[in-house]
Each structure stands twice: as structure tokens, then as C-alpha cells.
Specification:
By secondary structure, the protein is mostly beta strands. The protein is built from two helices and 35 strands. The strands form nine sheets. It has a four-stranded antiparallel beta sheet with strand order 1-28-27-26, with no helix packed on it. The protein has a four-stranded antiparallel beta sheet with strand order 2-3-4-5, with no helix packed on it. 45% of the residues are buried.
Length: 423
Amino acid sequence: MKTFLRILFFLLLITQICFAQWYQQTSGTVYDLYGVSFTDANTGTVVGQHGKILRTTNNGTNWIAQVSGTTNILYGVCFTNANIGTVVGAGGIILRTTDGGQNWNSQTSGTTNNLFSVSFTDVNIGTVVGDVGTILRTSNGGLNWTAQNSGTTINLAGVSFINADIGWVAGNGGNIYSGIILKTSNGGQDWTNQYSGGQNLYGISFTDANYGTAVGDNSSASSTLRTADGGQNWVPQFPGQIGYLFGVSFTDANIGTAVLSKIILNEGYILRTTNGGTVWILQSTPSVPPLRGVCFIDANNGTAVGDQGTILHTTNGGATFLEEETAPPTEFALEQNYPNQFNPSTTFGYSIPNESKVIIKVYDVLGKEIETLVNEEKPIGSYELTWSAANLPSGVYFYQLKVYPANSGAGSFVETKKMILLK
């Protein structure tokens, strides 16, 4: 009997270790869901097709349908506390609740353009964005909405304000390389173009006046843009996955999550960064259709929503027990890159069993050094690295790991592997 219990315990442990920490919740609908807003770990609202509004007060254990009073598609939602929230959608619709969604009241937007995103900094001051450069502003909780001059006719899909005055919007023109980012420092009286002509953008998230990330279509590989100076400079990042990033949520300057969709394949994925987007890690999730929105209230508690009523939830940042509990490596190793062949980004892992000086370089087929990826002291551990060859021609390349262990008395470790770039 004791032997049986030990085996059962071991199997349960292995099950915990191997399964991802994104859980699929029962939404009670098959309609596509686009927007999500949580005000604490338990209280959240989701919106989507056919005027669908869902509410939870128990961390998503139960999702309760609310009466929206419309069949229009609802794209965006923002709650400033458990009771007060605003929803926006197709045809210029704006809905407001002051009682947690028991009653939703229609507000006059003054437009019939589709509205995609909403950001409130307190119960009174909010901004809404939508089709053909639409920006609307309220300072009285939506009793009155005033149109602002965006200076563009490009569709605006995402908005993020850090206070009543300072905010950004991101958008797309529907064609490749027609994205835009606008900034205001005076509550939208003036909007300044910070970025245009790059990939289409669908979401944007700022945590303070300096650090922000915008996400979009990465058919050109660079689907995320990062700024550390309030948008004066936007730096392309390479998440290593091809698709559409429709939503992004950062809880501080470093920790953020984005949802990625492969529309043709009808697949949704989640990417996570803990270093401001320098590296994006593809997290393990249940097999789901495309994902459209994501909201984190802190580094651990987050919800993602998508097509066919999909709701995913995590309480530990989407990590797996495997990521947290894996034993330290016992030998040096360089893993084969994946995918291989690749275009334009690929990922590979490496392990070091003790503190070491690590150098990783990329060479072409003639042995010419192309790039140094790592050149620093590293503590014991297993690491993953994504490399982009967006500016390089097709061909065979080699990546090499050199390790110089500290205080071990052992010689250096060297290993080289081949990868194929095919454009």
C-alpha cells in the first residue's frame, strides 16, 4: 500500500511539473471575445461579439453574462474600480456602468466610427480611439465626449494613459508598413506623431512616463516596439514568432505579456518577457484559437481572451512548475536551434553547471564573425536566446558557445552548431 501511495504521489508531482499554468476557463459563450479588464485578482469584465459582456467576482471560476442592451461588437473595456467601467465598440457605441455591470447605460459618442480601445485614469477622465483617426475625450465620466484632432486618418487600435495628461495611441492603416504612434502631454489638446510607416500596430502599454511597448503585425519579424524615453525613440524587438500581436499588458518596466494569433492556422499563443522585451518567451498554454486581448493586474495574475469564447487565466505569470522547479544543469550544453530552417528569427538554449564567462557568437559559412550575442559572466542555469537575421541573406550560419568556468580548474568548453536561414 505504501508503495502504491508513493507511486501515486510521484505521478501527481510529475503531472504538476509538466502542465502549463495557463488554465482555460468556461466562458459560457462561443462568441469571439476582444477586450478584458481586471481591477483586482478576483474582479474582471470581458467583452466581445454580439454585445457580449461577461463578469467575474471570483477570479474567473464563474463568468456571468450581463445585459449590454446592444448586439454591436464590443472591442474595448476599462474599469477604474470594481463598480465603474466603460465599454466601447462598433458603430460608435459607448456603454457605462457605475454598479459593476448590473446596469449598462448608453452614452452619446458623437460618431458612428468603430471604437476599439478605451483608457481611464480615474472615474472621470478617459480617452477612446477608433477608425479613421478617431479620438474622443471625456472629463466627466462620459456625460460628454469631445472629438480631438489626431492629425491622421489611420485606424487607431490601442490607447494607454499614465495620468490625466500623458498618453499614447497606436494604430494601423490596414496595409503593410502603415503603423503609427501618437503622444500627448496635455490631455489630447495636441497629438504628436512619434512613429509611422512601420508594421501595423494593434496594442500599446505604458507603465510610466518613459517605458512603453507597442505590438502589432510581425510579418516583417519586428512585431514589438520598445521605448525607454517616452517615445522619443522606438526600438524594434523580435519575439521570434510570426503572427499578429493584438494585445499587450505590462505591469512594470520589465514584466509584460502579449497575445499572438496565427489567423490562418486558427491558433493563439502567449509571449512573456521579464526584461523589457529583450527576450520574449513562448509560454505553454492549452490549444486555443486566436487570442485578442490580455490584462495583468500584477506580475502573476492575468487573463487572456480570444475567439470562440476563449478565456485563459494564470495566477503565476504563466510559468510552469517545470520552469520553476527544474534541477540545476550538471553539464555544459548547447541546444539545436528551432525552428531550423528559419526566417528571420530562431531560438536556442544553453546550459552552464557553474558560474562561468560565456561567449556566444554567430559566424557565416566562411567563418566570418557576424554578431556577438553574449559576452558576460553567467551564474549556473539554463538559458534561452532568440536571434534575428532579418538583415542577413539566406544561407548557412553557425553559432558557437565558448565557456570559461570560474574557480573550477577545468578547461574551457566549446561547441558549435549549424543553422539555416531561408528567406
